[in-house]
Amino acid sequence: MTERLHIIGGGMAGSEAAWQAAQAGIPVTIHEMRPQVETFAHRTGNLAEMVCSNSFRSDDSEQNAVGLLHWEMRQAGGLIMQMADKHRLPAGGALAVDRDPFSEDVTAALRAHPLVEVEDGEISELPSDGHWIIATGPLTSGALAEAIRAETGAESLAFFDAIAPIVYAESIDMDIAWMQSRYDKGETEEEQKAYLNCPMTKDEYEAFIDALLAADKTEFHEGETAGYFDGCLPIEVMAERGRETLRHGPMKPVGLTNAHKPDEKAWAVVQLRRDNKLGTLYNIVGFQTKMKYGAQTEVFKMIPGLQDASFARLGGIHRNTFINSPTLLDDQMRLKSRPNIRFAGQITGVEGYVESAAMGLLAGRLAVAEMTGKTLPPVPAETAMGALVTHITGGAEAKTFQPMNVNFGLFPPVAGLKAGRRGRKDRYKAYTDRAKELWTGWLAV
């Protein structure tokens, strides 16, 4: 094979696409602008660096759509899942990852592969020939974004991702906080105590909401609009939607018993999840924010147990650009106006590490098939992978297209099963059983 696949962007999607192609015998060049061109969110030049949460979310492949997507990626020999499993942290049924060793090992595996080259430097124009995948993610460089806009004739859509703060474990007051996963979920004691919990009384919660609403927030630049993705709302935006919103969202107290005061029911609970294998860092779950740094330290230290907290990283906010994929991409993830270019990852309008990596996996396999003269059947829409790619390449309404996590709402219904909460467990199991059978069959083609 003399033809080479070029991939712009070495994040989750680009790394996975490169791995899939190289494992199939296709020479690959990854073009990564970091560290020559930095972003405010990245700290290193490593591939697949995790810049927001360290969670791949639920790993339940029978009752959860993202857990099913994990399963499908593992079956396809995915590098991202391989390294996530290697660097797994206790998280009560979720798949949390020790972020630095994870990205270091992804980088090492790709750089060691005999068919992979990594070239540092920015690509600022759309290539006119050759086989390319654009997987530049939410922080696509300004020059390349402008080239994409010029080619597509469409305005890029944008929302703002907010980054949750990270606290040093040693600074948390364990006379107030306690370790417990919600409903004691997990098969081992370590999993059942994967989260650190900080309780609030009603008065403490009300004072916290008041401070949150009054805090100084990051100002947007002229011409920017804050069109947030609902799965990653800043906590102050949630609070603005109603004083009880946080208490029924990331601060819900259900399924938790205060180990220090078992007879007292908390009005609200702030949860922190381990952020590294050593257990020295914890991120505040669901606490993405656009508050200014000074305001963050003041407001977050109002949380019982965090009154003396030291922060390894404060929250931040960044713009995320994605294309209107239902209009611009064909069912092979190719740009209709330039079919030598595929798009993959978050820039296509999927949301989350796992979904981004999954679209990289699929784009890599589709590119391999095209370059080797093979024809792959469409990915079954009943699979997690197929549900996502169907959504972004035509299943979504183009006029209202917004980033989407994988969820069972994207799956075709299973005949004979009723909707509603009562039958949900059986319905989800039927979805995942069907998907596993169809995905296994598609991989065997």
Automatic annotation (TrEMBL):
Binding site for FAD: G9, G10, G11, M12, A13, G14
Reactions accelerated catalytically: uridine(54) in tRNA + (6R)-5,10-methylene-5,6,7,8-tetrahydrofolate + NADH + H(+) = 5-methyluridine(54) in tRNA + (6S)-5,6,7,8-tetrahydrofolate + NAD(+); uridine(54) in tRNA + (6R)-5,10-methylene-5,6,7,8-tetrahydrofolate + NADPH + H(+) = 5-methyluridine(54) in tRNA + (6S)-5,6,7,8-tetrahydrofolate + NADP(+)
Name this polypeptide is given: Methylenetetrahydrofolate--tRNA-(uracil-5-)-methyltransferase TrmFO
Lineage of source species: Bacteria, Pseudomonadati, Pseudomonadota, Alphaproteobacteria, Rhodobacterales
Record flagged with keyword NAD: yes
Subcellular location as annotated: Cytoplasm
Keyword Membrane included in the entry's annotation: no
Coiled coil (residue ranges): none
